[in-house]
Design a protein that fits this description.
Strand content: 35-45%
Helix content: under 10%
Structural class: mainly beta
Largest sheet: 5 strands, antiparallel
Number of strands: 7
Shape: elongated
Order of helices and strands: EEEEHEEE
Strand order of the largest sheet: 4-3-7-6-5
Radius of gyration: 33 Å
Length: 151
Amino acid sequence: MGGLRRLGGCVVVPTWGLLLERNIGEHRGMTWSVGVMGHVEGTREEALAALRERVDGFDPGLFRTVRRRVVYREGDGFLVVVEVRFGWPRHYRFQAVEVVSDSAPPPPVPEPRPEPEPAPVRPRRAPAPAPKEWDAEVPEKPAWLGRDDLP
């Protein structure tokens, strides 16, 4: 179980579900919750390696100060025990389980997208003319000093 199998001359690569089980609902009594974090195609060892990455990056999101975090290896998964400053320790179970059947239809194969046309090359603007001496076309005598050639 968990390795590559042959089916009619073809090699079948198993799909693994990466599960997270945890307790939720502190004030109304503890309840178990199970969530699928993702799927991995490959061998059991590849699935466990992907699961270990998730375990190492897992943040329980506790608002209390975490005093200690211990990761245990068990069978096809890991058990993470988090001790907080006030309250009971929390534990989180991570498992790699092989997908045996799935009633959902497989996702559609994406159609290849055509290559986008390259953007047309815009001609470069001619460089701006160099400013004239004494600021570009700024009159030396402003309109309020009696000039009548300005609006």
